Amino acid sequence: MKLSGARMLCQALINEGVDVIFGFPGGSVLPLYDVLPEFQGLRHILVRHEQGAAHAADGYARATGKVGVCLATSGPGATNLVTGIANAHLDSSPVVAITGQVARAFIGKDAFQEVDITGITLPITKHNYLIMNASDIGSVVKEAFHLARTGRPGPVLLDIPRDVFVEEAEFNYPDKVELTGYKPIHQGHPAQIKRAAELINSSECPVIIAGRGIIISDACEQLRELVEKSQIPVATTLLGMGGFPGTHVLSLGMLGMHGTAYANMAIQNSDLVICLGSRFDDRATGKVSAFAPAAKIVHVDIDAAEIGKNVRVDVPIVGDLKVVLQVLNTLVNSKSRPAWLEQIQKYQREHPLCVSSEEDKLLPQHVISQIYELTGGDATIVTGVGQNQMWCAQHFLYTRPKTLISSGGLGTMGFELPAAIGAKVGCPKETVWCIAGDGGFQMTMQELATAVQDKVAVKIAILNNGYLGMVRQWQELFYDKRYVGTPLWSPDFVKIAEAYGIPACRVKNKKDVSAAITTALSYDGSYLIDFMVEPEENVYPMVPPGASLAELMEHPDARRANASSTFTVSNV
Amino acid sequence: MANSKRTLAALVYNRPGVLNRVASLFRRRGFNIESIAVGRTDDPKLSRMTIVVIGDNATVEQVRKQLDKIVDVVKIIDITGDDMVSRELALVRVKATTATRAEIVQMVNIFRGAIIDVGSNTLVIEVTGDEDKIDSLLNLLRSYGIREVARTGRVAMTRGGTIGSIKAEEEAATGRQR
Fold it and tell me: What is the predicted ipTM?
């Protein structure tokens, strides 16, 4: 039976298990929008800016593990997706982006709303396609979803000319994907796994770095088995949080620039680093040449190009973590490491995670701790980028995978609200909190309308400090307090929310924090809280840029707090 | 680490944009591609690329791994250390008067080249060999006045009777049995 390109695309999306598309219409995708109502299984969520569509698809993908889909028209619609696609690319998030293109006869002629989006997105997609014949749609969609979700996941873009949506052809939807140039390796090399096991068995002070690969590969159980069997403390990366329970006695919390002092100390003093599904990002390693100086390094990753890229590796293992860990766990001995674990506990006692001891101030860390307390940790946290993000990593203990959703690699301010909407659409039963700064929130706050129109209930907490806080912190510490471009005027966020029909309140005092959070939680729908937090609060500990993990700056109150545990928030 | 000349051999799908995808990765790492030669294989669906770049081992290996991730790249290997044969072809238009013509022809014969076009005061020479051979001929011709040079860049293959891993991948790619 012959179908139009638009109908083929919808049918192929349904075949791939797609149930929602985040999109924004325009001229070149009109033939597609025209047939959407025929496909009841495809829910369309209208965003207010295409960047929001890409972030929502990304948030949906990270919360569900399924492929997120966004849709935009040609030209500006397509270019507006670019930030979101780059964001998904750097964090290995499975997203399929569909863009309209001008009709085939107009391509390359600078037609109205024409842009070379396959050229533009070439370095920020896993792969992209310009579909020039309707008869190719079935097989290309099949390939695109296969690429997006397998191996190291990532975004794939499909650019489809307007007249290809209209063209009629035989719908050919293959059962199998044949991609000779693409064969992710799942089984790790047995000899290398054996070497890794030998190193683990013989090491005295090993540390695991758990990255997002643990979550993507669904290897949380296998990780836990390894950790408990061999008594290895675990530091997680920002994107790895939840891959290993933050409440576990062997959890060290996050490593890196704003990681816990004890995670960084454990790594620097270890004799073996076992890096699982992380790419040794500069924010995680600090100065690479001084990273874990005495340690041998085992690196497991499904992407061969990540191994040896940033850090010298003694045992490289290319493979899927779940598969590799299953084998590794059979080779690792049960072991207790009393001396090493005692040393770690000493780091934890002497260098706990601290917040200011000034009791009456409304500290942003307190807001996050309260959300943690009042949700019982049972929530998905979607963060912005900057201080709010680091406090969410430090003061909320994630016990389940896919519950911290954050822009790690690209560091995209404005990710929080649309990604939270996407996460909530993907997991309607989950309580989804969007934790924003006053800066990032204003980059995409137009998506409040999306949440209202499509009845997506997100709880929004703005940590409003009147500054672009993380940049201000750098200016305070490294630019002699010259606050250039960082003091931030903002509109009345409570009135903004109310203008969108979202109930909201403002919290100025510490004593009102928990009541506001309780109100937000009990309200059936979206709710916004504008927390007027301490303006010049800094994120500590901090490893200065370019310094090694050993050179971390602790909170100025750390020593005082050390004397009394009253104001100490420990991660354990 | 010391920079050296590396030769990469790649088997890629013969599709629009593939050259762009490959070249773009070198650009991103700031590599200047010394030469790149692309042509169809015996299977019209596949092309073979020979890429020559100057860089240190580790960086070239990192780029090679990145290139291997490109979906349209079936296989890419660094054959620098392998026992390989490589050739380049050059066309050279050189000034030739009645007085110098015979001399030039003699020189071209020594280099096992050929005269493929004769103009009233120029000759077009075809020569094949490794880069050094072509460079030396060009040096000798310089005194007569070189008008134009077109070089293909290196094409290379590993030596010996065994089929290289590229050939094996090619067979897998096209589903043919040997």
Answer: 0.86
